Amino acid sequence: DIVMTQSPDSLAVSLGERATINCKSSQSLLYSSNNQNYLAWYQQKPGQPPKLLINWASTRDVGVPDRFSGSGSGTDFTLTISSLQAEDVAVYYCQQYYSSPPYTFGQGTKLEIK
Amino acid sequence: VQLVQSGAEVKKPGASVKVSCKASGYTFTGYYMNWVRQAPGQGLEWMGRINPNSGDTDYAEKYQGRVTMTRDTSSSTAYMELRNLRSDDTAFYYCARSGQVVYFDFWGQGSLITVSS
Predict the structure, then answer these.
(1) CA distance B39 to chain A (A)
(2) Residue A66 in contact with residue A15, Cβ under 8 Å?
(3) Which of A90, B48, B76, B81 has the fewest CB atoms within 10 Å of its CB?
(4) How many CB atoms are closer than 10 A to CB B20?
């Protein structure tokens, strides 16, 4: 199974500042035939189901604000929130969909306001 | 797109539970339905998926032999049955839609299953 490891486990950032969350996979998520990274990011607010933010490592889902961006390739990926808003307080998860099952998630990063 | 799940349940150890997920707003047979669970305060774990068109299933090895995923195309509803429940099965169970490529673009609201004697 592919192991996904996020860092840090928790993060406190001031409003308007940049937040950066890292995700590392135990094997490459880059599929050479189409040059795509099979990685998604989700946001989960308290008491809610997860919400898809980004797929293919860097493609924002419909309606996701452009302050959210994804980057990286191979085994190392980053989710960046360029200017933190109060409504961005949540737990963030990365997920790989490269391999045949199981489709695995990182352990989550809790983002709070400093 | 909406995925509406059945309500919370309390079960005794050794019992079974069957959670439903009713889909609307899209062609039910055109997308996979996955089940993801989340223990209280913990992370997300993919349990398996069903192809509503064919009925074919893939299960995570951890749940093989204990889980069954089915569907009723006439009502656009997917089901997840988990047997021989243990206390560590206490969790929210989510249904989540995916395409052939398995990222989850829509999620149900979650069903809390509590296993307690």
Answers:
(1) 12
(2) no
(3) B81
(4) 18
> Contacts of residue A102 in chain B, CB cutoff 8 Å?
46, 60-62
Q: Which amino acid is at A100?
A: S
Determine, for residues B46 and A104 on separate chains, whether the beta-carbon distance falls below 8 Å: yes
Structure tokens that stand for A47 in this block = 């008491």
Residue type, B15: A
Contacts of A50 in chain B (CB under 8 A): 44, 94, 96, 104, 107
Any CB–CB contact under 8 A between A93 and chain B?
Answer: yes
Structure-token match 């990286």, residue found: A72
Q: Which of B43, B107, B110 sits opposite A107 (nearest CB)?
A: B43
The one-digit pLDDT tens for each residue of chain B (117 residues) are: 999 999 999 999 999 999 999 999 999 999 999 999 999 999 999 999 999 999 999 999 999 999 999 999 999 999 999 999 999 999 999 999 999 899 999 999 999 999 999
User: What letters, b where the CB count within 10 A reaches 16 and e where it falls short, cover B25-42?
Assistant: eeebeebbbbbbbbeeee
> How many C-beta atoms surround the C-beta of residue A20 within 10 A?
15
Indicate yes or no: CB of A93 within 8 angstroms of CB of B109. Answer: no
